[in-house]
Amino acid sequence: MTGPLDDARAHLSKAAQYLAAAELGIDEELYDPATSAAVHCGINAKDAVCLKLTGRTGKTDDHHRAAAELERAGPSAAAMAPTLRRLLALKQRAEYRSAPTSSTDATEALEWARRLHATAREILTS
Q1: Domains of the chain, earliest start first
Q2: 3 state DSSP class of 96
Q3: Under DSSP, is residue 60 helix (H, G, I), strand (E, B) or coil?
């Protein structure tokens, strides 16, 4: 049986994998999957932080609740919320709409995912 800290580390590892996939997607000009991977990096970074700071994380299909969950987890987590909101705003476009995600949006998504992952890594190692 694993505890919240082990689960937090597992989510941070998943976030790193999604971040690597997003980077590869950008390199290959695969902007929809790159953006989708960046979003999943951000969600896993949120899960890691919430598990570390509160011992739990919400699991719901309504990912917009994720930013509010960060805000409730404390000041260091709350600082991540605006970036996660921006990233989640690209989820529908990348995953469900017929219009392709632009290079600009995908590049922004990657940068936001990098920030969220870096912050989550800092929180988990503190």
Answers
A1: 4-125 (1.20.120.330)
A2: coil
A3: coil
